[in-house]
Automatic annotation (TrEMBL):
Pyruvate:ferredoxin oxidoreductase core domain: residues covered: 22-115
One protein family per Pfam: PFOR_II
InterPro entries: 2-oxoacid_oxidoreductase, PFOR_II, Transketo_C/PFOR_II
Descriptive protein name: Pyruvate:ferredoxin oxidoreductase core domain-containing protein
Transmembrane segments: none
PANTHER family: SUBUNIT OF PYRUVATE:FLAVODOXIN OXIDOREDUCTASE, SUBUNIT OF PYRUVATE:FLAVODOXIN OXIDOREDUCTASE-RELATED
Length: 126
């Protein structure tokens, strides 16, 4: 355990897209991350400042990165093709600093960028 903690910065791998000025962040991994990348482009074309934290490794979980992100944005949306595994970790890591909302799909169909954009627009109204 101590060995992991000492090397955590070398173990955790992620990619950041347009997070510098983002008001809303998507956190995605796996096949959903590709749709989330496209969603960021679509949202920005509409003037919505959205960014993406793409998780490459999900353990150890990037608690510090997500906590810092939660301090910068007002909303994090976590699209997942399951009942919400990562969203629980995101909620824990963000420590209530921003709203965390799941977007789940469990019918075997891929989540597409338009669906994620719809969720962003829906949540912006709240």
């Amino acid at each position: 355990h101590n060995k992991i903690q000492k090397n955590i910065k070398d173990i955790i791998i992620n990619e950041k897209y347009f997070l510098d000025d983002a008001k809303i962040a998507l956190i995605a991994y796996g096949s959903v991350a590709r749709a989330a990348e496209r969603t960021v482009k679509l949202a920005r074309e509409k003037g919505i400042k959205v960014g993406l934290l793409k998780l490459i490794t999900i353990w150890p979980f990037p608690d510090d990165i997500i906590n810092k992100l939660a301090q910068k944005v007002s909303l994090i949306i976590v699209p997942e093709m399951n009942l919400g595994q990562i969203v629980l970790e995101v909620e824990r890591a963000s420590k209530g600093k921003c709203r965390v909302v799941p977007y789940n799909r469990v019918d075997g169909e891929l989540i597409n960028p338009i669906e994620i954009l719809g969720k962003i627009q829906e949540e912006k109204k709240q």
